[in-house]
Amino acid sequence: MNDALLQIGKIGIIPVVVLNKVSDAEPLAKALMNGGLPCAEVTFRTDAAEESIKAITKKYSDMFVIAGTVLSIEQVDRAIGAGAKAIVSPGFNPKVVEYCLKNNYPVCPGIMTPSELEMALGFGLDVVKFFPAENAGGLKMIKAMSAPYTMMKFMPTGGINSVNVREYLACDKILACGGSWMVKGELIDDGDFGKIEKLTREAANIVEEIRK
Q1: Which CB contacts under 8 angstroms, 24+ apart, belong to 204-212?
Q2: What is the pLDDT of residue 25?
Q3: Which letter, b or e, does each residue of 27-65 get, where b requires 16 or more Cβ atoms within 10 Å of its Cβ?
Q4: Is the pLDDT of residue 212 over 90?
Q5: 21 an active-site residue?
Q6: Domain spans of the chain?
């Protein structure tokens, strides 16, 4: 497991962020840092993603910024160029994975099935995103797949919240969990970064409690 993924594992909960305005990037990053989760998965779902990553990494060099929802090689280049330290995708795109590995970019592709997991193993990966986690069987599915694939760690995302995240984090097959409950779109749009910081601190406390 590379250093970037080890760092993700230490953080434990990765805030999954959708930013519609670049101006929200810096105050959001500050709220996450102050709340105890110095990390953000900025999704490439919006036109503001690339510039938001640039803004965060320029202002907060200690912030671990991941590019999420990366669907193409072109997006990989834009994300890394903007300062992202890792690439995450919702599904398994062999071309994207191959390109990242060739260029030594940490990558965590999404899988749902044992067949996709074997594809990841074929590329030498030892961590995959499990998405959409709750809809795809949740922790029970992860444990079932882990039986024959003991070497694989998972980063479940999708339907993770402040309640069920505890059970996920307690499982030794979970590297980290992706979640958006502390960075909901309406909180960002309303500029309620104080509430985001509070929810982030509560999430960070859960990690400390479960993994101390």
Answers
A1: 204/12, 204/13, 204/35, 204/36, 204/37, 205/36, 206/13, 206/162, 206/165, 206/166, 206/169, 207/11, 207/12, 207/13, 207/169, 210/12, 210/166, 210/169, 210/170, 211/12, 211/169
A2: 98
A3: bbbbbbbbbbbbbbbbbbebebbbebbbbbbeebeebbb
A4: no
A5: no
A6: 3-200
Candidates 3.40.50.300, 3.40.50.720, 3.20.20.70, 2.30.29.30; CATH matching 3-200: 3.20.20.70
Is 129 annotated as catalytic? Answer: yes
- Could you tell me if 56 and 25 are in contact, meaning their C-beta atoms sit under 8 angstroms apart? yes
Three-state SS for 140? Answer: helix
pLDDT of residue 110: 98
The active-site residue, picked from 54, 85, 129, 153, is 129
| Active-site pick, 41, 50, 134, 197 | 41
